[in-house]
Write a structure and sequence with these properties.
- This protein has about 130 residues and is of the alpha+beta class.
- The protein contains three helices and six strands.
- Strand 1 (about 5-10) and strand 2 form a beta hairpin.
- It is globular, with a radius of gyration of 15 Å.
């Protein structure tokens, strides 16, 4: 996952329990519970659920992610880029992980954020509001 996912994890996502998850671009680890780990079909942790399904000619990956509506276009664009990186990695043409500031500087990021904002009917913020 370190080669494509937009986060680092200090434990095993393959078993039920608690791990520390750090999203790229942040310094603070978040305690995250793995609530379901049924290899190789289902993985649930935090606000995410992943499912793999065998289909003709390959495998379908479905991700459900609970993202604050204000940032849903950012989240969708980020996962879109992460899956592009994964696709290249699986195709033996790795480009390296792109996340956080590295991804946001790319023209494709801006295009994806605008497209997902339109699709979800939201206007993405220009910057993350201060807490």
């Amino acid at each position: 996952m370190r080669e494509w996912a937009p986060f680092d994890v200090d434990g095993n996502l393959g078993k039920i329990g608690t791990v520390q998850l750090t999203w790229m671009g942040t310094q603070k680890a978040i305690e995250t519970k793995v609530t379901r780990a049924e290899r190789p079909q289902v993985l649930e942790f935090g606000d995410h659920r992943w499912e793999l399904e065998e289909i003709a000619g390959g495998t379908r990956l479905t991700l459900w992610s609970n993202i604050d509506r204000r940032f849903v276009a950012w989240g969708a664009a980020g996962w879109h880029i992460a899956f592009e990186v994964l696709d290249r990695l699986l195709g033996a043409k790795p480009i390296g992980r792109l996340a956080a500031d590295d991804a946001a500087r790319m023209a494709v990021w801006q295009r994806l954020v605008a497209e997902y904002g339109e699709q979800f009917g939201v206007k993405p913020p220009r910057a993350v509001p201060e807490s």
